[in-house]
Structures are given as C-alpha cells and as structure tokens.
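The records we work with from here on pair a chain with its fold. Taken together, the tokens spell out the fold as the letters spell out the chain. To see the layout at work, look at the sequence and tokens printed below.
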Amino acid sequence: MESTAASKPRRTTKRAGAKKPPPAAKPEFVQLLTPEGKRVEHPDYSIDLSADELRGLYRDMVLTRRFDAEATALQRQGELGLWASLLGQEAAQIGSGRALRDDDYVFPTYREHGVAWCRGVDPTNLLGMFRGVNNGGWDPNSNNFHLYTIVIGSQALHATGYAMGAAKDGTDSAVIAYFGDGASSQGDVAEAFTFSAVYNAPVVFFCQNNQWAISEPTERQTRVPLYQRAAGYGFPGVRVDGNDVLACLAVTRSALERARRGEGPTLVEAFTYRMGAHTTSDDPSKYRRDEEREAWEAKDPILRVKAYMVAEGVADEAYFAELEQESETLGLRVREAIRLMPDPDTMAIFENVYADGHALVDEERAQFAAYQASFAEEGN
C-alpha cells in the first residue's frame, strides 16, 4: 500500500528557527468601569450596587493590598521564606470572591490572598506556610476555602471532583477554581475541563491571566485568547477586565448562578497584570520592560474605583482617612503576629516523608543535623 506521504510533493522550505507568534490583538472583554473611573454598560452583564457595597469592595481591595505589601516587607526582612504577591490583581480576586455564597467552595493557588480575605480567613494565618511553621494554617471546611496549592494546576482537578460530588449530593452550591495563565498549559487543567464538561459539574474555572507565567509571556501559552479554549471542551468562556472589580463581580456571579442551575462549567479569563514579581525570589526586570508595567499601572484597579466613588459622591476625605488608619492597624497586627510565630523547625522536612521511615531519609537527617551542629561548634 502506497503511503499518503509518498504521494504528496515534498516541501523544501527553509527553517531558520521557531516562527514568531502573531501580534496579540487588542483584548475584548466585559468592562463596567473604565480605567478613568467611568461607568459603562454591557449588554450581557449589569450590576447595581449600593453606596455601602461599593465602599465595601474598595475597602477589601485597599486592605488586601496593604496586607500583601506588609507580607512582602516581612519576607525581605527574613521573617518569611517566600511570598507570592497579588499586587495588581486585587479587583479580580475581590470581585470574584464577593460573588460567592457561604456554601460555595474555593480551590485557590498560592496567590489568592484577596479571596481568602473574602472568605473570612485571618490574614495572619496565610503567613504560617510561608514561614514554614505549618502546612497551611487554617481549617478548609471552616470557610469553604481550601489550603493553598503549590503544585501548578492540580487544584482544577480537585475542584472538579468536589463539584461532581456536590452535584451528586443534590445541593445547589457551586465550586470555583483559581489558576493562572501558565497553569492553563498543564495537563491537569485540560483533564479538569474534560471531566467537568462531560459530567456537567457545577464549577467555575477562574483564570487570572496576569500576562506572565514567571518569565514566560502569555503568547507562549496559547495562540488564541485563553477563554476561547472552553469552546473546545463544550462549555462557555468569557474574558473580563480583570482590573475592573465591578465586571469581575458581575461575570463571576453569572457563572456561579449558571453552575447552580445545572448548566455546567464556565471558564472566566480575568485579563489583568502582575505588577510585582512572581514571588520574592523572582526579578521581573530580567524579562519585562518598565514601560509595560507603567502602562498597566495606569489601569490600577483601586484607583479607578476611588475615582468613581469621588465622582459619585459616595466617599469623602474622612472616609479615605479612616480607611488609611484601618490599613495601618492591619499592618501592625500582621507584624506583631509574625513576631509571635515560632522559628521553623529545620528538622521537620524529614518528617512524614514515608509512613514507616526510610534508611536514606534517616541518613540524610543525620547528615543535616551534623551540618547544623557544626555552626554551633564554630561559635563556641
């Protein structure tokens, strides 16, 4: 039998390297509040908030950013081993977090400090894992907020399985899984999309596309907008302005309600930007331009809400001054809490590796203990 390849003329094109991706098109997304703080309407999504609710969203973002800045400073001072900043992503997290009901369940990555705030997790509890003194710091079932997940993308599968179980239990609660643009390339995420679609799981996949998967730009993850991937799995996807807290709230609320009605999963792509480093061990100046960050700083999620509130007369200088004082109090509480935490147990890394112990682990433990003891001997 003649092969198909043999029957076709052979190409003799010259290859000088990988083809450069086409320039990214201007993003089209759901937006209800412009970077200048102007309210706009969208045909498919609307939201009507009271003055108190609007002030509440602003307060959430301000306090979350203050906590995040304090944690970054504490890491620089040697109090934390590592910290993953959410700077620039406050609207995506607060907007989606406030769309949740108490009985909904959240599966985060390691950067969802704003969502944790919305779920009532004490901010100081987030620091224990990054200090190395515990394996999480909170009971997931107390706030329906799972422990932080370091393994990239695995929480999407956890969320899908939990959502399938919730559906079998006959509840009308929904599940949300957070991940980044880099995680969208993981096999776990693809499998979660497949299972959730086939089993019509009540789950929302919330992708915070902050443009950089550590040092890899989004165009290295996909040739099409991320939200369009959902169509290939048989469920809807939507891109939202991730720096617009009102749009994030409206879009996530709609996706959660769709899940509760038994209509299956939705992929939400929050188009945002990571203003800081990937983690405190990263130096973004090595791979991205200052001009890029400056352009995104002009779209700051907090400043646009403040501009809108001032224009609408729902907040005055007294309100902002009071909030500033509250943020300082939060920063002080975080600093005091970290100083009360014990130093990490340096030998704990060898515990719970194997259920019944292991000769190699015992050998490595002894070597490390001897190494530590050598410092004490030198000091004598």
Remarks:
- The beta strands are 105-107, 175-180, 203-209, 212-213, 216-217, 237-241, 266-271.
- Residues 51-76 form the longest helix (26 residues).
- Confidence is low (pLDDT under 50) at residues 1-18.
